[in-house]
Amino acid sequence: MELKLIHQGKVRDLYAAGEKYLLIVSSDRISAFDFILPTPVPGKGALLNKISSFWFDRTRHIIKNHMVSADIEEIKRLVSAPAGFDWDSLRGRAVLVHRARRVDFECVVRGYLTGSGWKEYLKLGSVCGIALPPGLQEAQRLPAPIFTPTTKADQGHDESVTFEAMAAALPPGLAETIREKSLALYNFGAAHALERGLILADTKFEFGLLDGELILIDEALTPDSSRFWDAAKYQVGTSPASYDKQYVRDWLEGSGWDKKGNPPGLPAEVVRGTLQKYEEALQKITGAG
Question: pTM for this one?
Answer without folding.
Answer: 0.92
